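Fold tokens
===========
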Amino acid sequence: MKPLLLTMGDAAGIGPEIVLRAFAQGQAAGSVVIGDAAVLRRAARLAPPLAQPIALVDEPADAAGLPAGCVPVLQPAGLPQGLAELPWGRVDARCGAAAAACIREAVARVQAGQAAAIVTAPIHKEALHAAGVAFPGHTEMLQALAAAPGAPPPPVRMMLANDELRVVLVTIHLALRRAIDAVTFDAVLHTLRITHQGVPGWAGGAPRIAVAGLNPHAGEGGLFGDEEQAIIAPAIAAARAEGIDASGPYPPDTVFMRARRRTGYVEPFDVVVAMTHDHGLIPVKYLGVEQGVNVTLGLPFVRTSPDHGTAFDIAGRGVADASSLAAAIATARAMAKPLA
């Protein structure tokens, strides 16, 4: 299998540390870091378990020839100078510029067929904005970079997943009043298509998709709202006509329990499609943020990330937990394997 690419994230956050911790714990074997070697060396001094030799490589394939225990780092050209001297835990435009450069490099490499997938460590949106980057975050930047010249960005959806539950969102970061208006027939149908194409069933094959309603009790036949009858159910019917195994809409307060994967219970669904951000993400995060993985569905390559941010409050202390990054690496490997 081709290597995974791990972007280092914001140089002043916990990204470099958790990347090194994942290598130290054997969870990032077969991966190459896209980042600044000096920043990684600084992170290696934070705690004894992180102290690993950093080796610069020119191509992802070069990592295979390194001695055991080395962390391969591919450093993009033109990174800002002095990143390793910047204070931990502070917003800095240079960190935003470096994070963006690492993302661009990773996408270019995976598009060139040199890597199997991308796993992104956390970036800071304020730092990105301070650097003049015209995207609010990872997703929008990856969409733009994935688009063919002159073509619109591909439609994408966010999936948050752990070993027990997977949830794909129709709407993401919108005020709730706006999010309700954004739940349209086309938005729901596109989400079902993207989920069908990008999410494997627990046992392999096409996923069994449960669609959560928008209103209490999924509208109770129109008593508590008609979005289920007017929008969501017709979109499900259209998806089923295309061969997509989607059903619902189900009451949001119970469907996640039915889809939860656990010992001794045969779950009837592989993934839940939820209409709004909090409807979908509260159940997954309640089960444990430390194992949560953010997956961007709809891109022409696999991209995952940990379910947390830059954690400026603990950056530079050597105490960051790499569990979510390790889960993101494992998920990327599993999703990329059928494509290899």
